[in-house]
Amino acid sequence: MGGFHIASVLSMEGHSVVVVEQSEAALDSVRRLDVKTVLGSGSNPRVLREAEAPRADLLIAFTASDETNMVACFLAKALGTKRTVARVRNPEYSGYLVTGGKSAIATRRIVTPESLGISLLVNPDIMAAEEISSILASLYSTSIEEFAAGRVQVREFRVESETIVNKPLHDVVFPQPCVVAAIDRPTEVIVPTSDAILKKNDHVWVVSSAEAMDEIGAVFAQKKSPAKRIVILGGEHVGFRLAQLLEKRGMGVKLIEADPALCHQVAAQLERTEVVQGEGTDRDFLVEEGVPFYDAFIAATGRDEHNILSALLAKNLDTGRSLALVERAQYVPLAEAVGLDGVVSPLLLAAERIIRLVRSTTMITVAFIAGSRAEAIEFAAGQTARIAKRQLGKVDLPHGAVVGAIVRGDATIIPQSDTVIEPGDHVVVVCLPSVVPTVEKLFE
């Protein structure tokens, strides 16, 4: 599913894409994209040659098997592929491997991913655990994307305050300078004009300096205390990694897992987490376990539908915050529409990291927002950039794009129409995917 999303984005941007897949049924869904398809395994040299790996700029191995992904990268690199990316889930594959010598004083050999032909290892589970941990530490339950070394944030807020419902943006008084860059609704994402009307439960993406965001958020919703007591549903992959991370940060964690064998396994590996066996969709069980009195409930099983239902049940029990892990990008708007406090997609997080490799060198950071229906991109404006030395109001930005912030030296600027972008500026732009190539050309 993550591979399909990456192929879709790259194809839409005009890249030449070849998708290798062992399943004929999966290839049928891919064929509606403007891509070439090859039936077979990516760990087969013959298949890689058929997919034109010897002359490829990048191979992305995104199967469910860590070992298949690593072998595919190794073979592709040997065949001539310039760069390779492997998705892995086992954290032991995510760094350096130190091999022992024949004796205690013998030289040890360090095996790096590069020595295996892998340019980049991406672990979606660890990325998702870190994302959820960041949300739990925030005063709000929605997503945060950071740019310019953390100085600029593109942050999601839900419209809950009745004082701004049904008001046009130009009538909303913000306590700090900011740009409302996108409004996410179940049926559409818009880059709004100042007369756009805010509706109840809209998901609004705001660009501003990091230190201003908490104050700005109070316009949209009531602040919450950072979560300290957390329930995690699911002991595999993300759930287990998240429990480990929260333990290290001194949080009180309860982990619920339906599989008895997995319960014993994770209980033996976690130091301070309370591990209990049970079903996340059993209301009586959740009440017995005190879920309504916890600060947050994170549904992190391997099943999207189960996660959404369980998180919704926890929210109806008045748990402080309710978040769901969702693999499929198309489920993100659904999960938000039913009223969950937050949704995290491991594969979208991984896709952000990978697509950054493909984009031009003017792109510093890329983040998918609104369930990948919009993007926030940090650009570097070079000396010859078309957008440089011009007032923003005189730049022909495409419809569906907005400049949210400019970082110049130590200053963070929320731009006006007469703001001039200087060479060397870092510029954060929020735009719809269809106009990314047009925006990119302005920074070339």
**Number of alpha- plus pi-helical segments:** 13
Termini distance? 32 Å
Uncertain segments: 103-108
Question: What would you call the structural class?
Answer: alpha/beta
Multimeric state: single chain
Fourth-level CATH superfamily of the largest domain: NAD(P)-binding Rossmann-like Domain
Describe the structure.
It is a single chain. The chain is an alpha/beta fold and 444 residues long. The chain has four domains: 2-122, NAD(P)-binding Rossmann-like Domain (Rossmann fold, 3-Layer(aba) Sandwich), CATH 3.40.50; 140-217, Regulator of K+ conductance, C-terminal domain (Alpha-Beta Plaits), CATH 3.30.70; 228-319, 3-Layer(aba) Sandwich (Rossmann fold), CATH 3.40.50; 356-442, Regulator of K+ conductance, C-terminal domain (Alpha-Beta Plaits, 2-Layer Sandwich), CATH 3.30.70. It has helices at residues 2-12, 24-30, 45-50, 66-79, 124-136, 213-217, 238-248, 260-269, 283-288, 304-316, 332-337, 346-358, 436-442, and strands at 18-21, 36-39, 58-61, 83-87, 97-99, 109-111, 120-122, 144-147, 152-158, 179-185, 188-190, 203-209, 229-233, 252-257, 274-277, 296-299, 321-325, 342-344, 363-369, 374-380, 390-391, 401-408, 411-413, 420-421, 426-431. Strands 15-14-13-16-17-18 form a six-stranded parallel beta sheet. Strand 22 (401-408) and strand 23 form a beta hairpin. Helix 5 (124-136) crosses helix 7 and helix 5 (124-136) crosses helix 12 (346-358). The longest helix is centred in the N-terminal third of the chain and has 14 residues, at 66-79. The two termini are 32 Å apart. The relative contact order is 0.11. Mean pLDDT is 90; it is low at 103-108.
